[in-house]
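USER: For my understanding, would you kindly supply a protein sequence with its structure tokens?

ASSISTANT:
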Amino acid sequence: MKIHENRDLGDVVRKYDYTAKLGRDRWAWEFLRRDAGFRDIARRHSSDDHVSRRPGPFPGVTLLKLRRPQPSAEAWGLAFFPDPGLDGLQADVFWSAARYPRDVYVHVVHVAPHVVDEFMMLALQRCQITHLTGFDRNEQFILRGAGCALQVRAGGVSLLAAEPHKMHLTIEGDECLDAKLDTLKKARRVYGDQETGPPRWTRQGRELRNALVSLDCKEAGLSYWEMAEVIHGREHVDTIRSRGSRALKDAMRRNLQRGEALRDGGYRDLLLSGTKGSLL
């Protein structure tokens, strides 16, 4: 996200509305792709050179396959280098299954020809699907729908097998049952309808957004007070400043510090399995 010189600061924050339904792994990407060093490395490792891409057997399905191991990407926690110019919804961000396995997992089994895979049918009807076959032949896929993106690990029979097969969905990790049910509920948002109206923010989501906005504001050369105007609006900022209070300016400094910490390696904490609120 770029904040240009000719700008209405009060309008800028609405451009981040797409982040309201991002899971923690997509938030990790948003911070990582703002690392200038990472962007330079990612652009030198064009995914077209390392990943084959072709249309899948159904509309809305794309098939990716790694041509070779990706140790440079693995060092950043990634299966390969996505385009850093694309955001958390658009980019084909597959986190390394070895380093940061996602909790949502499907086990694929052979079935009789008449058996319907409801999970797959719903995914084909409601989502865009990007499937990745790793160099080790392990499979993962991303479901995109209703403003959400969900990375899922797959095991058992190959999802590309010609024989009839069915997926069984599970939530892995060390969380308690209630936490797993909450994760499942949030994962199912990808099948929902596209929401209209203002975004509904969780407290954690709003804090992450503010940290991200602060990073972009600093890159654009804005002051702490201008950061506050982007996030809270000019009227609120003018009111606070008229009272002689520095609390809002100090809050912007903390936002920026958190954003910098997440960009400079802290994004990995967002990827850890079992973290409370794993899908926000």
Remarks:
- The beta strands are 51-55, 61-66, 104-110, 128-133, 139-145, 148-156, 165-171.
- Residues 275-279 have pLDDT under 50 and may be disordered.
- Residues 203-219 form the longest helix (17 residues).
- The first strand starts at residue 51 and ends at 55.
